[in-house]
Amino acid sequence: MNNIYQNYQNPFILAVLIVAALLVIQIIVRWWREQQYSLKGKTVLITGGSRGLGLVMARQLVQKGARLAICARDTSELEKARIDLQQRGGEVLAVPCDVTDELEVKQMMRFVSDRFGQIDVLINNAGTIQVGPMQEMTLDDYEEAIKIHFWAPLYTTLAVLPMMRQRREGRIVNISSIGGKVSVPHLLPYSASKFALVGLSEGMHSELAKDGIVVTTVCPGLMRTGSPYNAFFKGKHRQEYAWFSISDSLPLLSMSAESAAKQIIAAFRRGDAEVTLSLPAQIGEKFHALFPGFTSVLLGWVNRFLPEADGIGSDRVSGKESQSSISPSVLTSLSDQAAQQNNQFFQENSKMS
């Protein structure tokens, strides 16, 4: 007993015990908050739900008893995803829709409402990635990224808000990126548009809370979804594809799409305002917040090692058309496997991820 009492008298041991107790309490509270929101019978709409992260989230939501509406631009890709989800026991509506077109979004919302009655959860997941030096990026690249990452989530949100406000309940999930917190070289249109989505999403969380609507901003780091196959590459496109696809596949830098989807679903069930996924992304976000100038200097040095402008110039090709002797290879095996599993090979021309 004396030894135990003496341990409690030791300030260091006492501090460790207090921190451990607080962590345990936090875990219990997070688990309890998550359990309070059941997805059984809820209607979830996922944009860009036909492949990649969107499809992986849809699979997990089906397992939790949710009714699903998924949309993307390509009908064949959507049909394959619908069959996949129905074979897992899901009730699924697949709606072809270009979410950058406000009229198509409104029409899609009517289809979903006619089928399911209401939309309980909106997940804005559709996206595009353009990779290459700033010199090769055109105004069209920036406009495309802004349309998909800013205007599209705004269109879908404005379409579901009247129903959610009337019920004083609803969840909106905006899939941004660590690129919306830290601007990475050779991804300028992507990062700029994801920064815009973070600002929109954080503001909506503050303003819609009084209406009973929870908005969750998600900032993933690198994920093994297989997305490099459908990203667009400029300049020396084979070299650009090589560094991007290898980074996207390395276990210590990237996380699996399944793990990311699980954490995203848990976050919006808890009603979290924001979640950053993967340890490297969390470290990068905090380092940038503390040392923004130094972070920019470091990324400037990183940029020196990336491919120079040239090659195909401002023209762009998909990842499938940019393969080389080192990509695909053993270095990209995890991402290649994810692409096979998550419908990334199905359509050459679709932009929705």
TrEMBL record:
Positions of the UniProt region annotated as Disordered: 313-333
Transmembrane segments: 12-32
One GO CC term on file: membrane
SMART domains membership: PKS_KR
InterPro entries found in the cross-reference section: KR_dom, NAD(P)-bd_dom_sf, Sc_DH/Rdtase_CS, SDR_fam
This protein's record includes keyword Oxidoreductase: yes
Ranges of biased composition (kind: Low complexity): 322-333
Domain Ketoreductase: 42-221
Domain of life the protein comes from: Bacteria
UniProt keyword list: Membrane, Oxidoreductase, Transmembrane, Transmembrane helix
GO MF entries: oxidoreductase activity
Family note: Belongs to the short-chain dehydrogenases/reductases (SDR) family.
PANTHER family the record matches: DEHYDROGENASE/REDUCTASE SDR FAMILY MEMBER 7B, DEHYDROGENASE_REDUCTASE SDR FAMILY MEMBER 7B
The name this protein goes by in its record: NAD(P)-dependent oxidoreductase
